[in-house]
Amino acid sequence: MKDQIKTLARQYAADIVANRRHLHANPELSFNEYNTARFVAEQLKAIGLTPQEGVANTGLVALIEGRKTGSSENRVVGLRADMDALPIHEANDVPYKSTVEGVMHACGHDVHTSSLLGTARILQELRDQFEGTVKLVFQPAEEKAPGGASLMIKDGVLENPSPASMLGQHVAPNVPVGKIGFREGMYMASTDELYLTVIGKGGHGAMPDQLIDPVLIASHIIVALQQIISRNRKPANPSVLSFGRFVADGVTNVIPNEVKIEGTFRCMDEEWREDGLRRMKKMAEGMAEAMGAVCEFTVVRGYPFLKNHPELTRRMRSAATEYMGPENIVNLDLWMAGEDFAFYSQVVDSCFYRLGTRNEARGIISGVHTPTFDIDESALEIGAGLMSWLAVEELRVKS
Ligand SMILES: [Zn+2]
Ligand SMILES: [Zn+2]
């Protein structure tokens, strides 16, 4: 089976690359993946599948039915690809350069989508050789809150039939092409945005006794909030609290009425996430009040943290080792970035792994979300083939 998959992946590689280039040249922003969805639907229909369209508006779901098991136990594995691009103007001079001003597939979601289309073709071809069902999930809006994954789940993507496990892959510009990265347990962070307004009473800087200085109070609050990270957090819980915006719009001798602060809180534990947010709000509001000001503390909730189910991930790591060779499997570090695949990982056994796309010799080294991001396209044959193999292996597991 493994060799058959490898042969088919090689056979379809040129088509997968062509699909990737088409998607790359025609990127669409989050929640606007209309042409992308149409393209995916056409491709799926062309191989005999019947996609359910319009899930979370621009998402699609399709089933590949393997052999019936005979028993009532029909194992289902979900494979997810995200489809949206970013508001970045592409700086690469390549034949498949984005044709849309200011929009670019700078996070590799064109790669994920074309790779999953390749996987669909391989598994559809081999469907009489495995038992169970493969659920293909083409998802919109990974890059934008509230995240296409959360909307797909609301629209029932994890029901009828329910996947026993979900697999997702993401390009990795820091991992050489030909290598695959895994990490069991916590992998990526929850992402909440914090918006604080400290309201005091502004006036002449020479008469601070007449004023309630929001600049000084906001400064205290910023320092105090870091204390929650260093003193209330369990040391084993990775966390980041960063403020990137602090606006006190006075001048040398004029203290403004208010100060606005914006930051991000990230962690890898949902309980601590709630506790941390509660403590921050209390601290900020309480300190402002103690100093005679008011602090409005608003949280815009982002994605939960992404946990790779340890057993599933170990199974996928060993299946990938078989497919790729042990020298091509790498361990991933924790990454404090967010990813909406985390929504699946909170409710179903999930494994999110990384597909190496870096090629230093060819200068393909730019990070995701940069205008020069690109991949070594030989990763596509690997991505499509490996995911097919992982799905087949996962369907063999007895639940
Ligand atoms: Zn991204
Ligand atoms: Zn991404």
TrEMBL record:
Binding site for Mn(2+): C107, H109, E143, H170, H369
Cofactor (UniProt): Mn(2+)
Keywords per UniProt: Hydrolase, Manganese, Metal-binding
Residues of the Peptidase M20 dimerisation domain: 195-285
Manner of cofactor binding, per the entry note: The Mn(2+) ion enhances activity.
GO process terms (BP): diaminopimelate biosynthetic process
Gene3D superfamilies associated with the record: 3.30.70.360, Zn peptidases
GO molecular function annotations of the record: metal ion binding; N-acetyldiaminopimelate deacetylase activity
Family matches, as NCBIfam families: amidohydrolases
Protein name from the UniProt record: Amidohydrolase
Provenance organism: Larkinella terrae
Lineage: Bacteria, Pseudomonadati, Bacteroidota, Cytophagia, Cytophagales
